[in-house]
Amino acid sequence: MIIDGQKIASEINEILRKKTVNLARPLSIGLIYAGVNPIIDRFIAVKKKFGEKIGVRVEVYRFDESISQEEFYKEIKNIVGYHDGVVIQLPLPEHLNQTQSLSVIPPEKDIDVLSAKSLEKFIQGDSKMRPPVAGACEEILARAGVELMGKKITVIGQGRLVGIPVLAWLRRRGVEPTTVGLDYKGLPELLKRSDIIISGAGAPGLIKPDMIKSGVIILDAGTSESLGRVVGDAELACAERAEVFTPVPGGLGPVTVAVLFQNLFANL
What sequence ranges are listed for the domain Tetrahydrofolate dehydrogenase/cyclohydrolase catalytic (predicted)? Predict the structure, then answer.
């Protein structure tokens, strides 16, 4: 089964659009972006389009990649005061401290659930918001009727956007996955034993058909640019062996954006 992420996102979009109609005032999101990244540009375009459809204003604040940490910190503090939700697009230029920058956003406005405080609230069950990638995985698996308990689950990547929040979500569900980095030498053998693979390595073609077993579930959260195209970690040919497969683009990505907007409404 190849997952149609656009269809799921459209279903969520319609639910949120109906909620927007009954609000006393329109909601808004501030997207903060430092530097130049074609992958981020694509995601911003998708977020703006999603917001337009449900009546949420999405304003992009674009800064030069040479901006200082002090100035960036001040800009974030200022932007937070004008919006209901704030997102800092990652990755940031190397000289900018991600942890310090994200900490400026109050948890109730951190709809990406990326700051240490926001993630801790999620882990403790004190937040109505879900990390978007983890929420997208949850939405897709629920619709596919996939149970997590008793499954051998492998998470590839240990980053802030995918690996860390997905691990937190799985542990909240009572599941302890195997989490590895891109440089793990035993990856082919590990994947061959896995029932569910969630990958966010950002390594094109990392997962090949001969590395997986028949009936595996692959949730591909890896996004990279190769020859002018956005591609995932898993080769598309893996879909022929998988019970559930999310293509890139069009799989997890649209649902991740939809969950981000769900978070905007979570505290209303």
Answer: 3-112
Q: Report which residue type is found at 179.
A: T
Q: Residue 227 above 70 pLDDT? A: no
Residue 268, domain member (yes or no): no
Tens digits of residue pLDDT in 161-205: 999 999 999 999 999 999 999 889 999 999 999 999 999 999 999
> Whole-model pTM?
0.95
DSSP label at residue 80 = H
In the prediction, which pLDDT does 268 show?
Answer: 82
pLDDT digits (tens, 9 = 90+) for 140-158: 999 999 999 999 999 999 9
Domain hosting residue 174, numbered range: 132-254
Q: Provide φ and ψ at 167, rounded to 5°.
A: -60, -45
Q: How many domains does the chain have?
A: 2
Give counts: helices (H), strands (E), the chain.
9, 10
63-83 pLDDT, tens digit per residue, is 999 999 999 999 999 999 999
Q: What 8-state DSSP symbol labels residue 92?
A: P
CB 106 within 8 A of CB 50: no
Residue 176 belongs to domain with CATH number: 3.40.50.720
Distance separating alpha carbons of residues 106 and 247, to the nearest angstrom: 33
Counting every residue written for the chain, the total comes to 268
Residue 14, domain member (yes or no): no
User: Using CA atoms, how far apart are residues 168 and 120, in angstroms rounded to an integer?
Assistant: 9
Contact 268, 20 (CB under 8 A): no
Domain assignment present for 156: yes
Q: Which two tokens stand for residue 240?
A: 């022929």
Residue 151 lies in a domain: yes
